[in-house]
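Obj: model holo form, ligand = WT7.
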Amino acid sequence: MTNSTEAETVSSLPTGTRMWPLKRYIEMHRHSLDDPKGFWAEEARKLDWYKTWDKVLDWKPPYAKWFVGGKLNASFQCIDRHVRTWRKSKVAIYWEGETGETRVCSYSTLFRAVNRIASVLKKLGVGKGDKVVLYLPMILELPYLMLACARIGAVHTVIFSGFSAQAIADRVNDIQAKVIVTADGGYRRGKIIALKEITDEALKRCPSVEKVVVVKRTGEAIPWTEGRDVWLSSMLEDAESFVTPEPVESNHPLYILYTSGTTGKPKGVVHSTGGYLVFNHSTYQWVFNIRDESVFWCTADVGWVTGHSSIVYAPLSHGAAIVLYEGAPDYPTVDRWWDIIEKYGVTIFYTSPTAIRMFMRAGKEWLEKHDLSSLELLGSVGEPINPEAWQWFYKHIGQDRCPIVDTWWQTETGGIMIAPAPGIEAIPLKPGSATLPLPGVDAAVVDASGKELPPNQTGLLIIRKPWPGMLLDIYESPQRYQESYWSHFPGLYYSGDFAMRDEDGYFWLLGRADEVLKIAGHRIGTAEIEDAVIAHPSVAEAAVASKPDEIKGEALVLFITLIEGESPSSTLKKEIIQHLRHAIGPIATPDEIYFVESLPKTRSGKIIRRVLKAVATGQSLGDLTTLEDTASVEEVKRAYERLKNASGKAKKLLEAKRA
Ligand code: WT7
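Output (holo structure tokens):
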């Protein structure tokens, strides 16, 4: 694919790397790293500030504060700015419910809705810095509420509507939220998810919550707690139609979003207002080349960072038209998404490798029934995309005509970090590679000692310089913030991902290097699942591993030891699965459960994960010379044999019982 004769350099390329003659990109990237403050100040001027910053960057490692002293408001950026122009009558959101209804929301409708909801929040006593939890399906009220919080300087925490009671309680308690907003239900694959009941159950464990605001979606009867619960619709009856946006300092938190780490407790990732918006505004333009006539559809759930940045804040800050679809991708038929693309004339389609693999399996016939000629650009996010899925995406969805932007980023990075940037220059693509770091992003692949690796060697992905979208902190856990991201290599941001850079400087992201799993693109920590399993009364100990899955990327495998007197059975297996779905949510459904006599541990009691992994994937233990565990090689081998026999026996036992 390459025809570059002369090696060009990007200031962050390891030696031995060639580079395509990408003039604009290289210049921009080089300038951004040579003069980050000048570069980002120029980008920041694309937004509206009530007051400009006193200082572009205050970098006291590991804390970065961007645009210090600057004042702005996120709701103003995403709405007021546009309603002052011709965009007031432009579409902001095409919403489609799973049941087929459509609502088209213009920027002036968005303005009115967000103002009125902001007025409701104020009447409920919510003010600047207060935290509001949003546990909602993908309905218009979700972005309305996020922007309404931002308007008054309140901090939102969205909890993915697929999470269950315990997961909600953990998050609500961590931030001590006083207000939670939910709905009377949400539609998923034709069924109703009882969000209010789940909320009520969670709130039994959440003494901080004083008010529950309920959005009407399904009209189903729901349990009601007088004095605590209020309908949003009745509060709106006497809401004001304008609420002055609260100017906040650039480092005032816009939101806290929980994500999984290596301990059982999820991390509350805190994002700023100014840096976050500047970073998202710019990267969105570079990667998606957004124009006024674009119709942008990101299929993620608003409950994840992709939804925060790529559904709400980045597109709306550009006055773009987005699609928001409430339901399941394959409901009522497998071509629901293709129907939506055709119906709204989607031009940019941003989705996950898991979804693509699912459609691949369903077959291209479903696509052929639809006119997808509106599509111009495709995007992938959330997990590595295998070249087969990439090719299928390109050929059958993009009809050999649309470039694919594979975008690498994380909840913590706030916005896209590594991706092709057609908005800057047409970057030659390689199926399976996220290509090059965006301007302002100084990414590298290092070995265990933090030394940069030459091309084509696998190592760990790190970021050398702070960027404006970087998380401010982990909520009330500065120590965890430092340990998670800055203790592996002092001064370098540790991503937790394996990566490789090829001879053209392209990044290949190779999956997590820590105890975090990516199941269907959803991030979940092994410790979180283990804690939940152990809470089952029959379980003594639990350990989680994963195995490759053709569609989901990874699938969950559980190893369990039972308490005295309990014995393995398929009933117990089912019970544990139910228990997990109930405690965390359907994303934590294991594909396999092995009941074993004991778990492989080191003398100091640490679970030897690579043994679990080898048993789960049915592979041999492989090279033990680079063993990072404290276990001895012999110990590992013995544990492996024991477990392999045990899981084999357990399997046979269950099969025999079933027969
Ligand atoms: C992890 C972050 C970024 C929004 C959604 C995920 C994996 C993400 C890619 C990609 C390979 C990817 C990484 C990363 N990941 N994008 N394009 N190629 N891997 O956010 O839930 O915080 O997960 O997702 O492993 O660390 P998240």
